[in-house]
């Protein structure tokens, strides 16, 4: 089933009903998708400061009010606890479970951070004639931990996570131009070419998501990724955090073109 | 004395020594200037959230660590309490004093927010052949309270403040293009043309700064302004806040061109 031209509200309904539970790359072309971090209020200042200091991996699209499962900007009818296809719960830095609904874990002190996702710019890449391999291969995007340090903030510190798309050499400049114009969904690549230069030792074994084919004449291009907070959370070991499962995003009602500053 | 090509560190030294105490429009062409809001830590989350929800008037360039008077990004040798030409102190929403040095008021629980300033893009406007009236007339920029509501966050709510520059009709499009490319120092105008449409009743009496001449064939163009937090603070009446005096900015060591996302 191809959801590339489906309405975001329709896809969110299928997700909420448990009919769609997979990754969301390629769905609802032109609409912004979002990563998720849900934290207790007592950690919210440090985390919001972490995003301010690291806008490339963590471009915040919306922050909920304390305790609220609703959004005001990205979608009016959203339920944050049910509208992602898959969630992760981290306790003291350990991944303790994956869920398709986190209603039962909700607490009145939770704050939700929705962070721009590079799936958003893939429809613009396709429009510009640039291939997106994991959509062709019907997989999740490959994501890697790197050696690129984030700016620390309060208790939060750690390295950047990146997503990778193989791009034909002759289209690399165009891929930079297209994505650089979309800073709120990660913007320009953070690295082009050498996985080793950013601490990735085995490109065929991503830390999150699936491996994809890199063809002759293609170069791996790396974008900052909204899974970065999960790597940071595993480092920092806070008591209780809910995130999305990598690649399993919230699909908003806001078009990419309306995310300009 | 013309400081347009002076080094930021030299101007900051003159400011710290009390030799320069005036407004900073036109100084250190090409370098980012910054607004200031200093708050107790207990208000910092609400204020940081206010800036996240209102990035046009409040594009945050740097947030200090709690209690620190130093910066890490905008300048390595800065003293936040002495390197602005003029400060304001607000107690319970009342402006209780202006100072050229706020060292004596420093507290260990203070957090400083440095917010992009539209003075930063004036050198780019001049470079593009667009006149900047208050620099020609050696005045502070005119700033106005408006009827444009900000998105509320926690205790903070209120209307946007704007700066105004009269632009010849045939250069308005170019002025939009030049400034839209610089979102971290307020970016594109928020309004072009009718002061009444955004709640400004008397263009010749700005709420902050100086009045400037609008010549025949020119249109008033309004940009979001980093004095917005001061208007919001007067509404919200927190116990204790330090800000810069409007137009009396911090001049950073970071070039505008390096403020890209």
Verbal overview:
Two copies of one chain form a homodimer. By secondary structure, chain A is an alpha+beta fold. The N and C termini of chain A lie far apart (about 35 Å). The mean pLDDT of chain A is about 95. In chain A, strands 1, 2, 3, 4, 5, 10 and 11 form a seven-stranded antiparallel β-sheet that branches. Chain A has a four-stranded antiparallel β-sheet with strand order 6-7-9-8, covered by helices on one side. The first copy, chain A, has helices at about 10-15, 40-55, 120-125, 135, 170-180, 230-235, and strands at about 30-40, 60-65, 85-90, 95-100, 110-115, 145-150, 160-170, 190, 220-225, 240-245, 250-255. Chains A and B meet through helix 2 of A and helix 2 of B.
Question: Secondary-structure map with pairings?
Answer:
2 copies of one chain form a homodimer.
Chain A: H1 8-16, E1 31-40, H2 41-53, E2 60-63, E3 87-91, E4 94-99, E5 110-116, H3 122-127, H4 133-136, E6 143-149, E7 159-168, H5 172-180, E8 191-192, E9 218-224, H6 228-236, E10 241-244, E11 250-255
Antiparallel strand pairs in A: 1-5, 1-10, 1-11, 2-5, 3-4, 3-10, 6-7, 7-9, 8-9
What's the β-strand tally of chain A? Answer: 11
Shape annotation of chain A:
globular
Mean pLDDT of chain A: 97
- Low-pLDDT parts of chain A are none
Largest interface: chains, residues each: A-B, 16 and 15 residues
Q: What Rg of chain A is obtained from the alpha carbons, in whole angstroms? A: 17 Å
Cα(first) to Cα(last) distance of chain A is: 34 Å
The percentage of residues in β strands of chain A lies in 25-35%
């Amino acid at each position: 089933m191809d959801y590339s031209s489906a309405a975001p509200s329709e896809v969110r309904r299928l997700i909420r009903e448990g009919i769609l539970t997979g990754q969301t790359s390629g769905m609802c072309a032109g609409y912004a998708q979002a990563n998720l971090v849900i934290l207790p209020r007592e950690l919210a200042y440090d985390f919001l400061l972490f995003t301010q200091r690291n806008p490339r991996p963590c471009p915040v699209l919306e922050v909920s009010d304390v305790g609220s499962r609703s959004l005001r900007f990205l979608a009016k009818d959203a339920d944050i606890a049910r509208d992602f296809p898959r969630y992760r719960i981290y306790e003291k830095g350990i991944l303790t479970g994956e869920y398709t609904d986190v209603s039962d874990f909700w607490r009145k002190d939770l704050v939700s951070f929705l962070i721009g996702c590079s799936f958003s710019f893939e429809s613009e890449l396709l429009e510009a004639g640039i291939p997106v391999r994991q959509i062709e291969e019907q997989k999740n995007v490959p994501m890697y931990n790197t050696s690129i340090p984030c700016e620390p903030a309060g208790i939060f510190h750690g390295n950047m996570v990146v997503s990778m798309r193989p791009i034909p050499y002759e289209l690399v400049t165009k891929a930079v131009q297209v994505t650089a114009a979309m800073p709120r969904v990660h913007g320009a690549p953070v690295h082009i070419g050498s996985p080793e230069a950013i601490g990735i030792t085995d490109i065929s074994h991503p830390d999150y998501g699936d491996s994809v084919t890199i063809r002759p004449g293609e170069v791996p291009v790396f974008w900052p990724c909204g899974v970065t907070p999960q790597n940071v959370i595993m480092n920092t070991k806070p008591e209780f955090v809910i995130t999305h499962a990598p690649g399993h995003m919230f699909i908003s009602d806001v078009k990419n073109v309306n995310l300009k500053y």
